[in-house]
Structure formats: C-alpha cells, structure tokens
Design brief:
The chain is an all-alpha fold and 214 residues long. The chain has one domain. The protein contains 8 helices and no strands. It has helices at residues 2-32, 37-40, 54-65, 86-121, 125-148, 156-164, 167-190, 195-212.
Length: 214
C-alpha cells in the first residue's frame, strides 16, 4: 500500500513538472511569435498552479491511480491575429507543447541511460528516489506528447491538424471538432479494454527505448 501511494506521488510530481513545461512552451512560443495574450494572462510561468485545468487535473489523478500519467493543463490563450505569420505561427505554437515534452523526455532519458547504473549501485534513498523520478518524468513526458497529438479538441493535435488543412476543410473540421470533440475525448478515456493505452502504448514503448536505451 505504501509503495502504491509513493508511486502515485512520484507520478503526480512528474505530471506537474511535465505539463508545466508543456503549457509554458505554448505561452512562450506565442509571445515570441508576436502575441502577448498569454503573457498578459500570466501564463509565461513555471508555476504549475498557473496552468491547472479542472478536467485535465482530474485526468492526471485518475490516470496516475491507474499506473500511468496523462492529462492536460488549462488552454493557453492565443490570438493568431496578433502573430506575424498567423497560420504558420499558430501551427508552431501548437506543436511546441508536445515538442517540449519530447525534448524533456530525450534529455532526461539520456541522463537516465548513463546515470542508472551508478544510481542503482548506490543504496541511498536519494539516489533510488531520484532514479524513480527520472523514469517518471521520461515516461510521463512521452505520454503527454503522444496524448496531446491526438486530433481531438481540446488537445494540441486538433489545432495542428486544423492549421495543416486547406482553409475550407479546416473550417468544417473546426466546426465538427468543436461540437463533438470533448465527447469523443471522454469516450476514449472511459472506453473499456484499455483502448487509450492500446493507442498510446506502442509509440510510448518505441520512444522510451529510443531515449533510455532499455
């Protein structure tokens, strides 16, 4: 029981770190593109509280209790009309969330690859807990990136797909996604048979092996 609680706590810490990096990257990339909406809303921040989303936080808790961790933060306010190249910059702002998680996973996974053996040889609680946290950050970062690339609102994948479609097709997609997106997302989350994990699991395992070598 104690191990379960400890594992849950580790995953929640990793989630807080990873989704904060994710939302910060959205806000900062929008600011760099010329849109200061997120900056004015206080979202260029590394304080997790500034990025909490009620439903996304519930998803973090539920998924962490289930043994893995995914979720999302409060959507970053973005005004493409204030960007220098609205369509392109909006696409890049959406991409930078998942991309920041993949970069985090690559960096932390590389550290884990070369530090795992020395940490395993050390019997100190700090080394053991540090390794567990590195593993959690790497795994959660990968899952957050893949999950947020799904083309379902309010996830980043929906904005990325919309920006890549021709204008008229993008308008139709945005209309349908706005009407049914949240329903589809909730259906995917609660679907029986671990449907969500069957979607996320294979690319997660591939990236884990690529970044950590294990």
């Amino acid at each position: 029981m104690g191990q379960d609680i400890f594992g849950f706590a580790i995953r929640m810490v990793a989630l807080m770190i990873c989704f904060t990096i994710h939302e910060f990257s959205h806000a900062y990339s929008a600011y760099r593109a010329g849109d200061d909406t997120a900056k004015m809303a206080g979202r260029i921040s590394l304080n997790p509280i500034d990025h909490l989303d009620p439903l996304g936080t519930i998803m973090m808790v539920v998924s962490s209790l289930a043994g893995f961790g995914i979720g999302w933060g409060k959507p970053v306010p973005v005004n493409p009309n204030r960007m220098r190249r609205p369509r392109w910059d909006n696409l890049m702002v959406s991409l930078w969330g998942p991309l920041s998680n993949l970069l985090t996973a690559a960096v932390v996974g590389t550290v884990l690859r070369f530090a795992a053996i020395p940490m395993m040889m050390s019997h100190s609680p700090l080394a053991v807990n540090g390794e567990l946290l590195l593993e959690a950050i790497t795994g959660v970062s990968i899952l957050l990136a893949i999950f947020n690339l799904l083309p379902i609102p309010p996830l980043d994948g929906s904005h990325i797909l919309s920006a890549m479609l021709p204008y008229q097709a993008a308008r139709k997609y945005d209309m349908l996604a706005g009407q049914y997106g949240m329903f589809l997302l909730l259906l995917l989350i609660i679907a029986p048979g671990n449907l969500l994990w069957h979607i996320l699991g294979p690319p997660r395992d591939l990236l884990w092996k690529l970044f950590t070598g294990t």
